[in-house]
Specification:
Number of helices: 1
Shape: elongated
Number of domains: 2
Strand order of the largest sheet: 2-3-4-8-7
Strand content: over 45%
Order of helices and strands: EEEEEEEEEHEEE
Largest sheet: 5 strands, antiparallel
Distance between the termini: 30 Å
Structural class: mainly beta
Length: 164
């Protein structure tokens, strides 16, 4: 599915810089001095030919991309060896369908109130509409003022963006 993707990077005016959109979509940008404060940047080392550069922006100004020569020109307006560039591409990206479930774990304070340090209780989370996904959890009192909740993830699903 064609998708617009954006990546930004500090490009060097003296050496090649890698621009990475995704593990499978990346390229290098190699500068070449033209005259005074003008440079030509060449797109090289392309990983994946399945994208098209649609826009290049530096300091709010668009740089014209020459598709035939795989390059763009830019004035060096900054003090220093690098400048911030934003690249916009259109690429065929394969999306993976996932299920997304939200669940707010609510444990009444009364259940934790009488726990002594190093005591715990356990219970189960049953996701509404997904009764086959149950998770055992532990509420442990690890210090006088601190309770820790640990959820066993026997289904290897992502919980808060992490699967382990």
């Amino acid at each position: 599915m064609k998708t617009n993707i954006v990546a930004s990077a500090y490009l060097s005016y003296s050496s090649k810089t890698k621009v990475k959109f995704h593990e499978n979509i990346q390229f290098s940008v190699a500068p070449k001095f033209k005259k005074h404060d003008e440079f030509v940047f060449y797109i090289k080392d392309i990983k994946s030919n399945n994208f098209e550069i649609t826009r290049i922006v530096n300091q709010g100004l668009d740089s014209h991309f020459d598709k035939a020569n795989n390059c763009f020109e830019n004035r060096h307006r900054n003090v220093g060896d690098t400048d911030w560039f934003t690249f916009y591409i259109s690429a065929d990206v394969e999306f993976k369908k996932v299920s997304s479930i939200t669940y707010d774990l609510k444990i009444p304070a009364a259940r934790m109130k009488y726990l002594e340090v190093y005591e715990y209780f356990e219970d189960f989370i049953v996701l509404p509409g997904h009764e086959n996904l149950t998770f055992k959890y532990y509420v442990k009192k690890v210090s006088v003022d601190f309770v820790e909740v640990f959820v066993e993830n026997g289904h290897n699903v992502k919980i808060e963006g992490k699967s382990k």
